[in-house]
Amino acid sequence: MNLLLRSVTVVDPNSSFNQKQIDIFIKDGIVSAFGKKIKTEGKFKEIDCKGLSVSPGWFDMYASFCDPGFEYKEDIQSGVNVAAAGGFTGVAVLPDTYPALHSKSEIEYILNRSKGKIVDVHALGAITRKCEGKELAEIYDMHHAGAVAYSDARNPVGDSGVMMRALQYVKLFDGVVFSHPDDENVSHDGSMNEGVVSTNLGLKGMPSLAEELMVVRDIYLAEYTQSRLHFSLISTARSVDLIRAAKKKGVKVTCGVSSMHLMFDDGELNEFDTNFKLNPSLRTKKDVAALIAGLKDGTIDVIVSAHQPQNIELKDVEFEYADFGAINLQTSFALANTSFGNSISNEVLIEKIAINPRKILGIQIPTINEGEEANFTLFNPSEEWIFYKSENKSKSANTPLFEKKLIGRVVAVFNHNQIVEL
Known about the structure:
- The protein is α/β, with parallel strands linked by helices.
- It has 2 domains: 3-54 and 369-396 and 404-421, Urease, subunit C, domain 1 (Roll), CATH 2.30.40; 59-361, TIM Barrel.
- The chain has helices spanning 76-85, 104-113, 139-145, 160-170, 184-187, 196-201, 208-225, 237-249, 260-263, 285-296, 332-340, 346-361, and strands at 3-10, 21-27, 30-35, 45-48, 53-56, 58-63, 88-93, 120-125, 149-150, 176-179, 192-193, 205-206, 228-231, 253-258, 302-304, 376-386, 405-415, 418-421.
- α8 (237-249) links the parallel β13 (228-231) and β14.
């Protein structure tokens, strides 16, 4: 299709037009012209972009699409719809499905089911069979089938030897292993962050120590193997400090944070809202401040949605018995943007949600330059909006954000010569 973006502000550090307001003409899916008041001929769609910004299409590297096996929560198509509504043109999906994404055939299933859609769906292969942490999965076969990295999703690999062998194995092709840092011997059966709030509520806590012990272990393993390690979700101030120090030493480590953990702290659980029951837990205000500081100084590389659909039967129960997780793919950008206020620039935010995720996974980074295939997100960084339940694109509804005011709205996404306007 042919598309003209009129007077749009470019937010792309890899573009020669970064931070400039300009007209952009896309012809047959290719960025073909830049200029002021571009005149074009023939049939095309025009969008007045006054007050809007355009960036490379966003990429979420930690989301559950629940397919195969749990399609009643989410499936490939509904996941794509949610991602597009959230401004994402690429997603890496978690492998804790049924069956798990632990062999070549499951990776091929994901890629074949998602072929030709506006959102590029990539598969994270399991580190171990069934994501159980015991026996290495078919890592090399999955690599050749198209897996972009390896993760046991929210199941920590408790066996140090298994984790070490996984890190050694992926060195064959410069792969990356995801760590979910949680020593379950310490956090066992906890429901929320261990602290003043958990004590007041009478809920069993999950100490920060459980995360930090595993961060220390896996940093040592990455240093020993000289392999690439990515902490998928960190949540504590001490974890930020440990990873910052490891990076200064030259350890090949990167990390991500959920946008939920940038906005909320464990005080939200005073009302026993199970939609705030997350893994890792919401921590203290001090931890939230440390996470935002880690994003600013580059210690934290990416912001993810940690999108985890759950059906109502797993959430509408007593807090201790509720499953962890919240849907967030549709709201992740707005949530992060709201939490920052004006303390982080749009350029830094785009680096965390569009550029760094692809860089870590070795996926081509789209740029807004002449002659490049158009893959972009059009958004208004300052527009206030309310997330109404009627606007939810997910099959699931486990979110604390319905009826909440957010700042930063997605207007459209464009990829593979397809557009979704919102």
